[in-house]
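User: quick one, fold this
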Amino acid sequence: MINMPKGTNERLAIHGGAPVIDSSRAKFEWPRITDQVQLAVKNQLLDTISIYDNSNIFGEFEKRFAHYHSRKYAQLSNSGTSSIFAMYEAINVLPGDEILCPVYTFHATVSPMMYLGATPVFCDSDDDGNIAFDDIKRKVTNKTKAIVVTHMWGRPARDILEISKLCKDRGIYLLEDCSHSHGAMIYGKRTGSFGDIAAWSLQGQKTVTGGEGGILTTDNKNLYDRALLQGHYNKRPKIELSDNSTLKKFSLTGMGLKLRAHPLAIAIANEQFNHLEEFIETRQEYAKMLNRALLEYDFLDLPDTNNAKNSWYAYCIKYRGEYRHGVAKRRFVEALAKEGLIEIDIPGSTGLLNNLPLFCHPDQILPRMYNKGLRKQDGFPVARRFVDQLIKMPVWSFSDEEWIIDKYIAGFRKVCNYIQQNNGGLLRGN
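Assistant:
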């Protein structure tokens, strides 16, 4: 006989009961193609889709984005990865340069440096999943050229001030990957405004998206000029590089690559940018609703909704039910999915980088830059524990989607009540 949660006759869907959500409308779909988005694309089509400089929609978006982040310069590209690549090229990364970076991040935070022959030095995480200052202090050396900070899942890195001071004291570049953290703030400043240069993705399900695209910002004209030549050539460098710049003679060719964004993508991103603060405000309210509803469960470690301004790219829970009630994380997520909570996710593409072949055996795929493999880096206990415990879900952005949050709360509570009141019950084990 299947054990039911005390005081209820609800059978879990994984045990044959009715699911909480049976509507496909509860699926997370982003971006929402509103009438305003369609109009922005139509207007751009009627204007032009051939832009070779920073005029028109490119210039408008870059100006707005730079001003929003209190930066002097902004530069669009065709992807966040391209903007990160330009970020490394801007600081003139050379073969053998060591760059401290998070072991826990999406690979594109680090992989572009491999094209330049750099050596990534991985650092452990804090308990929020962001790079840990204590490990940075242990690993920084005279060979360190830069430190890269990723604001994971939209949560600003809480050690960013200490990292920034260390970089200034030692003459090291501070780079920020803000792909998850559009509009996030900490210590009264937006992410992307602490370092020498910062990059964002405008891809896919990012809070500000054009489908594809990327952008970087900086206050340093020399860094901006090098980044410009890395991904743009001819007209834009001819216009933007000063006549007395030593780089001016490379205007026609740049560094040989064209990584220009598409105008239609930026028209979409520009329209989305109009609503960024609204999106964050709604996501914050939904995150608070989830926290209030799930606070009673002793095996869920919930994200902080009170301190730094999280942009809520994802709502992240550290799951401890395996230790408390004998229910494996995979089994917990399976039970939630059977209730219709299909957006609950165990991240697969974002994990620890130290074991990925690119960072262990670059000689096998980039022999022009590496003649042998890199030293295997191990350890990272906090990052590993974070990955082992993490489950996440997207956070919806519109006021008319509150019913979905209500349904997800109901599904969570149904499964969690069963686990808590039956000490795991039939969900125990793998």
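User: anything notable?
Assistant: Confidence is low (pLDDT under 50) at residues 1-8.
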